[in-house]
Amino acid sequence: MKVLVTGGAGYIGSHTAKRLAEHGHTPITFDNLSTGHRALARFGPLVVGDVTDPAALDAAISAHRPEAIVHFAALSQVGESMQRPELYFRNNVGGTVALVEAALRGRIGTFVFSSTAATYGIPSHVPILETQAVQPINPYGESKLACEMLLRSASAAHGLSCTALRYFNAAGADPGGLIGEAHDPETHAIPLLLMAAAGKRAGFAIFGDDYDTPDGTCIRDYLHVTDLAEAHVRALTLSGAARFEAINLGTGHGQSVRELVDAARAVTGRDFRVEARPRRAGDPPSLVADAGKALDLLGWKAEHSSLDHIMRTAWDWTNAPANPLHNRG
Ligand code: UDP
């Protein structure tokens, strides 16, 4: 199958493009390269274009005739979204509106959407089921929820099949050393820990050690990006006219920030300075998926997501020559 992968030059998009190719599909990457990297778009044709641009979308669709869309292209920094909410709504919601319209013009009936656990906000229960209330607490989560609402309505109105995959914490890298996470600036815990281990940062700050959790630090559900990629490929087979599903992707188990620090030290064999700082605004104490629906509907569960494997592959990528950020301080 030919699949248009918006944001296919980004972190999760590039791993999904690779997995699609491994399953015999043809990924067509559509990316404006604002945060993605040309070097990561290596598994099929690359079209450089902006997802908010209807003419660019139409041109890509008529040139390549994809049968399905996997939509990653979006801004994803919570802090930035608090400063510039209009940018997040324009890009994330505006981009999804433009893409749905282009899908309708191009008669593409299958749509897989990159969503997030940030749609839940501060959960009332952990592990989190998809039926729990969605009450995002930042514009990033709000923008993703608005896209889900559009997709739900568009699937009913136009007979599309839409799946929104709500990721917990994506981490790790493909073991081949050619693709991985390359955010600039980096804000995520695991790459920051490994940059500290590599001597590229002075140390690592734990954002809050006074939470109501066993060791006082926040708990998250870390999922290896190759597991995440596989779930997208399976979601393409969830067909059914006018069907919309929101599905959590996580392991069902949580790890604390202190456990990440210990794993980073163990895997790298390096020590680095770690200090507790005040809490970061908007961080819920614990986010862990109930991943039962993904197993039921997609036959999917995490298989490569031990913290050791996540840390090892992320460490290899930190030091890989192909990493676009490798030579930067
Ligand atoms: N975190 C931290 N120090 C950092 C970056 C993150 O202590 O420099 C914590 C953060 O507060 C959260 C966890 O690590 O509890 C995961 O944060 P990340 O930004 O990786 O993902 P998020 O859960 O915010 O999507």
What would a concise description of this structure say?
By secondary structure, this protein is an alpha/beta fold. 37% of the residues lie in helices and 19% in strands. The strands form 4 sheets. It has a 7-stranded parallel β-sheet with strand order 3-2-1-4-5-6-11, with helices on both faces. A 3-stranded mixed β-sheet has the order 12-9-14. A two-stranded parallel ribbon has the order 7-10.
Large-scale geometry = globular
**Cα gyration radius (Å):** 19 Å
> How many β-strand stretches?
14
Structural class: alpha/beta
Along the chain, the helix and strand elements come as EHEEHEHHEHEEHEEEHEEHEEHH
Small molecules bound in the structure, each named once: uridine-5'-diphosphate
What summary fits the major beta sheet? 7 strands, parallel
- How many helical elements? 10
Widest sheet: strand ordering: 3-2-1-4-5-6-11
Question: Which whole number gives the mean pLDDT?
Answer: 96
Helix content class = 25-40%
- Unreliable stretches (pLDDT < 50, length at least 5) are none
| Percent of residues in beta strands | 15-25%
Topology (SSEs and partners):
Elements: E1 2-6, H1 11-22, E2 26-31, E3 46-48, H2 54-64, E4 68-71, H3 78-83, H4 85-105, E5 110-116, H5 139-158, E6 161-167, E7 169-171, H6 189-197, E8 203-207, E9 219-220, E10 222-224, H7 225-235, E11 243-249, E12 255-256, H8 257-268, E13 273-277, E14 286-287, H9 292-298, H10 307-318
Parallel strand pairs: 1-2, 1-4, 2-3, 4-5, 5-6, 6-11, 7-10, 8-13, 9-14
Antiparallel strand pairs: 9-12
The structure holds uridine-5'-diphosphate.
Residues 169, 187-189, 192, 205-207, 218, 220, 257, 280, 283 line the site of uridine-5'-diphosphate.
